[in-house]
Amino acid sequence: MTNYIIRRLLYLIPVLLGVSFLIFLLFNVVAGDPTAVLLGKNATARQMEELREQLGLNKPLFMQYLDVVKSAFTFDFGRSWATKQEITYMLKQGAYPSLTLTIPAFVISTVLSLFISLFVAYYRGKGIDLFIRFLCIAGMSVSALAYILGFQWLFAYKLGWFEISGFEYGFPEFLPYIALPAIIWIILSLGPDVRFFRTVILDEIYQDYVRTARAKGLGEMTILLKHVLRNAMIPIITYTVIQIPFLILGALLLENFFGIPGIGGMTLNALNNSDFPVIKAMAILSSVVYIIFSLVSDILYTIADPRVKLK
Amino acid sequence: MKSLVIFILAIVFIGCTKEHQFDARELHLISPEKIAGLDPIHASDRYSGLEVGKVYEGLFEFHPLKRPYELMPNLAEALPQVAKDGLTYTFKIKEGVLFHDSPAFPEGKGRELEARDFIYSFKRLADPKLSAKGWWLFDGKVKGLNEWREKSSKEETTDYSAEIEGFKVTGKYTFQIKLVKPYPQFLYALAMPYSYVVAQEAVTHFGPEFLNHPVGTGPFILPKYEQSNKIVYTKNPNFRVKFYPSEGEEGDEKLGLLSDAGKKIPLVDRITVYVIVESQPKWLGFQKAKFDVIELDETQADQALTEERVIKPEFRNLGMRLVSSPQIDISFFAFNNEDKIFKDVRVRQAMSLAYDRKEANKLFQKGTGVIAQSIIPPGLAGYESEFKNPYVAFDVEQAKKLLSEAGYPEGKGFPEVTVQTRNETIARHQIEFFAKCMEKIGIKVQVGMNTWPELINKVSKKQHQMYTMAWGADYPDAENFLGLVYCPNKAPGSNGSNYCNPEVDKMFEEAVILQDGEERTAKYKALNEKIALEVPWIFGFHRTKFSLTQAWVKNYKFMEFNHNQAQYLNVDFEVKKELRKKF
């Protein structure tokens, strides 16, 4: 397994080279000149030229590509063009609020979905199964924005149960601020998660080994929890772990509407300001985290199913 | 499982809301945009300027109450002496003004402000390595400054000790500036956040992190600025003696705006600024008394105001006050005047005539906008309320006639036009309405939606046929608007319509060098009328700004150039305590 992990980690090199090339193409070749946006409404041609020189946009394209590669491998992303702050510092500042929202919400929604899926699988075909499936589809049909606006108005403004917006650093100070967005995240995730997990569990329920277990006289609950769930874990792990990199990217809409100073809002701001170094940093980090978590899911397969060997 | 239950319980029990203190002289304000650090030379947008203005100060400021805007000394002892040729300005600054305490100074104690600090700050604005957004204010204006900038761009490090002919420190508290040519707007430039004074020690001490460690002379301090959702300022204990004005414009006394006259400012002990981008949380928070002042956007205005644009009774009963003020701005549809189709003035005039501004005003501004007859907005010398532009009237028949004369009868042979705009629903609706108007004269219009960077790029590279935008005043002088159709400013400069007319340029050059007075106003009026008939843009509206304040907020008056406003605001916490139960 060690060899496998080392090999997968080495894959990072060509992937980062590829990502760097794509980023370079997108931002240094295809994208427009950022200097007009960066210098504001009274920018002069001369000033724009000077800024291009300073930002290295006048360098030969190959040199510009090397700069992107260098930052991809050293994780030294320099300073933001718009805020002039160290990007590493900005990421640290933004990661805390983003993760305090996304991690608990993700964990709760995944565990809850799994329980509900087992429950509906147990009562498959019955009224409660139909009702929960109906709720899932109904829930998924409503846009995230409607949940955010509605819940913020009802629970934060009208009933006053939560803070309307804002964020405080430190535990438990942040709880009143992340509670409502976390609940919305959970509700938004329940529909697709329950539907997926239920399908995976039902696929397993009709397998021969389940029939054998029933024939041996095992209880339905024992079969579900001990045998079915274990065998359904591979697709569940794939589905769940692959979502983790996106947690780091934050929750754009939720952060914006609830005034949470996370990475989602930071990325949006960078896009609006042609702040290429920040966008590049986010693109590079996302791909690295994505690769790492796909490796984590591979490793988890071996734990969930000992027949899986990583070679 | 156990930890999950604990977490849920924590959410249930701790997830209660926090109440604001109702007995403190504290203001809770909103910034609708993220702030890009607190370095004056980069404070290009209004919201950055507002934050910079709490910590830093300049030589001059605008009177918080008087209208039209009146310049008054701030760190300067008085308005400068201007030599007869209008080129040499002599300034004397106030004595005993201290910079904020900071580790940048010996023993952490803020030192006294000196004349040399201004020269250093102006040089920073010109330093090519800093790419200051405010360079345009000094570009080509001060003797020797452009040469110094040119030289500095070729050197490894910028030499701030180098002499510049136009800058001369004549004493500890006095200095002179020599201009290349008369520039009467110069004093306005010195009231803008870009030219606020900084200390060289602080810039050197914090290096590239200076923008996160503001060290000014202003009424509030902020030891460290963090890119967050909240900025908390406290009163500067070493702030010099400065008083609330005892004069304002007519009606200010009745509005209670002079009740703090003669009191020492700043009047509040603490200011918290919340960065909230989205509309709903701002509005809900304001209704819950989390925020003290809100500038209403379209959606909020619809909820807070009646069709007639007066405050709804439910909000008035809570003591909330509506402040509506005409803005010094203009919204417009700009032609790319280099596009051959728009070179013919009859085409521009025809399209302007076909645009139903009354209906647009009703649809998009509930009739509160002032229809723009030309480029100069109300509130500035050169604006004429009686002047009516014949091409602003809605007249489809006349439009068709002109279009026909231009060779496009009923719009035949006229190419489809794309109007570029920002990716916003309201902007799209406005262009769709514009398209409907143009359809009446046979011109097909498409909407081009863009992100802000895309739009700016298209305009600066002349890759557009038409675009929509609004321009807000940087300072209260019509030059700031007339320059938008001045040929040397064409793209990538601020003349995005690329309009060039030697006659207009000549009139502009003659007018802008004159000191404020009747002669200049007459020239501005003539230029304004000339531009009106030339129709380089389809003039839109001068918009009205609506703000609501809570009952306990004192001294709030909308200011176009309100960078220094926070120090004049006050909170009546007796009223606040009284109203507490209603929220």
Distance between the termini of chain B: 39 Å
CATH architecture of the largest domain in chain B: Roll
Q: Looking at CATH, which topology of the largest domain in chain B would you report? A: Dipeptide-binding Protein, domain 3
Instruction: Work out the count of structural domains of chain B.
Output: 3
Largest sheet of chain B: 5 strands, mixed
The CATH class name of the largest domain in chain A reads Mainly Alpha
Unreliably modeled segments of chain A:
none
- Point out poorly predicted stretches of chain B: none
Oligomer: heterodimer
Biggest interface, chains and residues, is: A-B, 63 and 59 residues
Per DSSP, what share of the residues of chain A sits in E-state strands of 2 or more residues?
under 5%
Characterization of the model:
- The complex is a heterodimer of chains A (311) and B (583).
- Chain A is mostly helical and 311 residues long.
- Chain A folds into two domains: 2-74, no CATH class; 87-304, MetI-like fold, CATH 1.10.3720.10.
- Helices cover 75% and strands 0% of the residues of chain A.
- Chain A has 15 helices and no strands.
- Chain A has helices at residues 2-10, 12-30, 35-39, 45-54, 61-74, 87-122, 127-141, 144-158, 175-205, 208-215, 220-241, 244-248, 252-257, 263-272, 276-304.
- In chain A, helix 2 packs antiparallel against helix 15 (276-304), helix 9 (175-205) crosses helix 11 (220-241) and helix 11 (220-241) runs antiparallel to helix 15 (276-304).
- The N and C termini of chain A lie close together (6 Å).
- The mean pLDDT of chain A is 88.
- Chain B is of the alpha+beta class.
- Chain B has three domains: 2-18 and 239-323 and 549-582, no CATH class; 56-207, Dipeptide-binding Protein, domain 1 (Alpha-Beta Complex), CATH 3.90.76.10; 329-542, Dipeptide-binding Protein, domain 3 (Roll), CATH 3.10.105.10.
- Helices cover 29% and strands 16% of the residues of chain B.
- Chain B has helices spanning 2-14, 46-55, 115-126, 145-154, 186-189, 200-206, 279-287, 298-304, 313-316, 345-353, 357-365, 396-405, 425-439, 452-460, 479-482, 502-512, 518-534, 573-579; strands at residues 26-31, 60-62, 71-73, 81-82, 88-92, 167-169, 174-178, 220-221, 230-235, 270-275, 293-295, 321-326, 329-335, 370-371, 417-422, 445-450, 466-472, 537-539, 541-542, 544-549, 553-554, 570-571.
- In chain B, helix 10 packs antiparallel against helix 12 and helix 16 runs antiparallel to helix 17 (518-534).
- At the A-B interface, helix 3, helix 4, helix 6, helix 8 and helix 9 of A face helix 1, helix 7 and helix 14 of B.
